[in-house]
């Protein structure tokens, strides 16, 4: 067979992962490095398996020669109890999305949602003012993003969620982890006054996806002073991204985080340095293909 | 991710399969077809798993996106109870070495030890006289070979084994499956008289491998009239093959069956026609590499 240093077998475990673009991104980058690199989606909903089966799937993947796994909703917390080791940031975050499986079967968890957003933010919005940032959405992805923002040095982070208790819980957890920063919960009712004071706004809810059209807040609240980061990437040009850009805001689209997490996972799996710009170009091409297919399907219907 | 028609994930389950050349043969042939084709050995002894775990491994492979599995010692019989369907020859033989896993998870078993030897025999020893054949060795591989010989039309097959009961058992099973042929058990003591009457002899014991040097019988019993088939392929040129050829016998080396089973498995997994000669050339190259590495290691020791 191919040597372990020449071939990589990776999987993505989660619910509804069949349409994920991550497998294709990894396979293309692997091929560009001359590797035999195969990446399989392992979709719990297709298999009819509960989220709790993630431990058994990780163990089976080790037995069957997988080099690593990405883990997504709803297994990022659940998987932790089944790993031999978890790196510091993933442990503090309480979420793992990347598992490396050693040739001895030893499993180590990482979080590249956090690191991927952090890299995307630093490279895509360099010199962004970090005094006060408002984040909308305190779910799983939101947690990783908030952790990254505080790691990047945000002084005051206000977390807003339609579920005020969730925003409060997340804010108090992050306050404990980042005692040097101020992390508070805000309400949607207070958004106008929050944004009036904020340097930037990060969007971590599903609004803007095809199934949830619109913007997560009235973009009339934005001024050219604000920077805006979206994590929705289907479409890349969400209504928020489009309107913010038109208003003169500096903008980070959701594709940057999606690519950033894949770039970091590829590096962790292979020990090789991926070409981040090439991976982003692949990713944008895949999104375009997807749009073309959907337009064709709509035309045929 | 890559489409299922563009990428193949295959495994080999068995005890001590790490040094098998089958994964490399498949991967190279897959690459020659432009496929993303990854083939992992799944070694029970490395994993510390009992042969009985084959059912769980097959199920896990289905969940994790494998397209197929080869199965070898000691799981070829055990696996049958865990499959959704078994093809006619594999069912009659009572042994499966190739499992196709459908996109719906449905598993179908085949036996390419049988078909691989049959093809090798027909192409490598065309017009071989089939009146009376003596076979040495009635183990797992021997069973598939005997089944292939009778399928090829051997009129009288004498099976000889150091364990007379095993030879008797195998002969009586095959008699029931091939009522038109005569299948009997012979003893090692009677080999000289058996060979005096035989058209050809097939060797299915480990004698001739590096760890079991020598020939399985006194080659002075061979005449140029005999054809000789060996299934040992490490080395390709066993002492039996070498001496038989020197005596003027037509000879089939063990590599032909090893390649034949891989050729058939590749076709079953992919639906594509492999290039059998290219696979044999790959295989001989791999054996040569192995010899070179061993010679180097011996020199360094």
Low-confidence stretches of chain A: none
- What is the name of the CATH class of the largest domain in chain A? Alpha Beta
Instruction: Write down the overall geometry of chain A.
Output: globular
Radius of gyration of chain A: 19 Å
The number of E-state strands of chain A comes to: 12
CATH names the topology of the largest domain in chain A as Rossmann fold
User: How many domains comprise the coordinates of chain A?
Assistant: 2
What is the CATH architecture assignment of the largest domain in chain A?
3-Layer(aba) Sandwich
Organism (chains A, B): Sinomonas atrocyanea
EC number (chains A, B): 1.1.1.25
Catalytic activity (chains A, B): shikimate + NADP(+) = 3-dehydroshikimate + NADPH + H(+); shikimate + NAD(+) = 3-dehydroshikimate + NADH + H(+); L-quinate + NAD(+) = 3-dehydroquinate + NADH + H(+)
GO molecular function (chains A, B): NADP binding; quinate 3-dehydrogenase (NAD+) activity; shikimate 3-dehydrogenase (NAD+) activity; shikimate 3-dehydrogenase (NADP+) activity
Task: Characterise the protein shown here.
2 copies of one chain form a homodimer. By secondary structure, chain A is an alpha/beta fold. Chain A folds into 2 domains: 7-110, Leucine Dehydrogenase, chain A, domain 1 (Rossmann fold), CATH 3.40.50; 114-256, NAD(P)-binding Rossmann-like Domain (Rossmann fold). In chain A, 42% of the residues lie in helices and 19% in strands. Chain A has 11 helices and 12 strands. Chain A has helices at residues 22-32, 44-47, 54-63, 88-93, 112-124, 140-152, 164-177, 191-197, 239-246, 255-270, 276-300, and strands at 7-14, 36-43, 68-71, 85-86, 98-101, 107-110, 132-136, 156-160, 182-186, 200-203, 227-230, 250-252. Chain A has a 6-stranded mixed β-sheet, with helices on both faces. In chain A, helix 1 (22-32) crosses helix 10 (255-270), helix 5 (112-124) packs across helix 6 (140-152) and helix 10 (255-270) packs across helix 11. Chain A starts with 6 loop residues before the first strand and ends with a helix. The model of chain A has no long low-confidence stretch (mean pLDDT 95). The A-B interface holds A 1-2, 7, 9, 11, 20, 23-24, 27, 31, 36-42, 47, 49, 57, 60-61, 63-66, 105 and B 1-2, 7, 9, 11, 20, 23-24, 27, 31, 36-42, 47, 49, 57, 60-61, 63-66, 105. Chains A, B: Homodimer. Chains A, B: Pathway: Aromatic compound metabolism; 3,4-dihydroxybenzoate biosynthesis; 3-dehydroquinate from D-quinate (NAD(+) route); Metabolic intermediate biosynthesis; chorismate biosynthesis; chorismate from D-erythrose 4-phosphate and phosphoenolpyruvate: step 4/7. Chains A, B: NADP(+) binds at residues 88, 137-141, 231, 254. Chains A, B: The active site is at residue 76.
């Amino acid at each position: 067979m191919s040597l372990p240093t020449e071939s990589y077998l990776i999987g993505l475990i989660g619910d509804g992962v069949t349409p994920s673009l991550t497998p294709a991104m990894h396979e293309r980058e692997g091929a560009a490095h001359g590797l035999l690199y195969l990446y399989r989606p392992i979709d719990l909903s297709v298999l009819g398996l509960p989220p709790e089966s993630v431990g058994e799937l990780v163990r089976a993947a080790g037995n069957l020669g997988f080099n690593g796994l990405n883990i997504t909703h709803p297994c990022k917390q659940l998987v932790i109890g089944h790993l031999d080791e978890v790196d510091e940031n993933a442990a503090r975050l309480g979420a793992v999305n990347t598992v490396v499986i050693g040739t001895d079967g030893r499993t180590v968890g990482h979080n590249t949602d956090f690191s991927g957003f952090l890299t995307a933010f630093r490279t895509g919005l360099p010199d962004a003012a970090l005094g006060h940032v408002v984040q909308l959405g305190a779910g799983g992805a939101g947690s990783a993003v908030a952790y990254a923002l505080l790691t990047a040095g945000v002084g005051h982070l206000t977390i807003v969620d339609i579920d005020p208790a969730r925003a409060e819980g997340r804010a108090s957890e992050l306050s404990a982890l980042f005692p040097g920063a101020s992390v508070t919960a805000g309400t949607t009712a207070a958004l106008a006054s929050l944004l009036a004071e904020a340097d930037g706004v990060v969007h971590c809810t599903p609004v803007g996806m095809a199934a949830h059209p619109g913007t997560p807040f009235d973009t009339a609240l934005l001024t050219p002073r604000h920077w805006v980061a979206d994590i929705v990437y289907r479409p890349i040009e969400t209504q928020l991204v489009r309107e913010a850009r038109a208003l003169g805001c500096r903008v980070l689209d959701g594709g940057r985080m999606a690519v950033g997490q894949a770039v970091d996972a590829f590096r962790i799996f292979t020990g090789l340095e991926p070409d981040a710009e090439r991976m982003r170009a692949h990713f944008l091409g895949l999104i375009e293909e997807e749009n073309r297919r959907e337009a064709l399907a709509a035309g045929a219907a």
